[in-house]
Each structure stands twice: as structure tokens, then as C-alpha cells.
Specification:
120 residues; alpha/beta; Rossmann fold; four-stranded parallel beta sheet; 3 helices; 4 strands
């Protein structure tokens, strides 16, 4: 089975109208500030008004979690809750990757491997 991947930078494209053309939606996003979305990402997410029944999604968030006791609730949880409210099916558990004191590349590799296995 061939998988076609299409990358969209939602900062540049604030309209979610073409999201219906996809079966699987992957969000790779940053947690900004104190567990919140960047304004442009939030605008994109709330522009998703259509029903997403039959579509699947997963979310990976990157952030500086140093000093936070509970860093598993950030931008990914906000996006996940919103997509679930639109009847989209969660396909993978949220992955939160710490970027301080340096990028955790092993965690990135592990997430990519899990994503690849689940797409087959």
C-alpha cells in the first residue's frame, strides 16, 4: 500500500477547509507558554468546524517541560480534545517530547517508528 504524505504549515495556511481530503491527520506542534497553543495554531484548530467521522489523527508535541510536574497536558491535549469533539478517531497516544536541555532525538525516532507501524 502506498502512502501519500502532504505537509501543511498551518501557520501559513489558516484555513482548514481542505482537511476533508485527508484520511489521517498528524499534528506536530509546540507547547507554548504554560501549556497552551500558539495563536496561529489555535486559529487553525478552531477553524475545523466540519464533522471528521471516519478520519484518524495523532499528535506529537514538543516543548520545554523542565520544572513542570505535569507536562502531559499541553497543546497536544487541547488539539486532541477538539478533534475528538469533531468525531475524529485517535490513532496513537499523545507523545510529548522534551526539548530542554536538548532535543530528545531518540524520542522523536521512537514516535516516527510508532507512527510508521500504525500507518501500515
Amino acid at each position: 500500500m502506498d502512502i501519500v504524505i502532504d505537509f501543511r504549515n498551518v501557520i501559513e495556511k489558516q484555513n482548514s477547509s481542505d482537511i476533508n481530503g485527508y484520511d489521517y491527520i498528524v499534528f506536530l506542534t509546540a507547547t507554548y507558554g504554560d501549556q497552551e497553543l500558539q495563536d496561529d495554531i489555535e486559529k487553525f484548530v478552531i477553524s475545523i468546524t466540519q464533522d471528521l467521522t471516519g478520519k484518524k489523527f495523532c499528535v506529537c508535541e514538543l516543548g520545554n517541560y523542565y520544572g513542570y510536574e505535569d507536562y502531559f497536558f499541553g497543546s497536544a491535549q487541547i488539539i486532541e480534545n477538539y478533534l475528538l469533539s469533531k468525531n475524529c478517531n485517535k490513532h496513537l497516544q499523545i507523545t510529548s517530547i522534551d526539548t530542554l536541555p536538548r532535543m530528545d532525538w531518540r524520542a522523536v525516532d521512537h514516535w516516527i517508528d510508532r507512527l510508521g507501524k500504525n500507518l501500515k
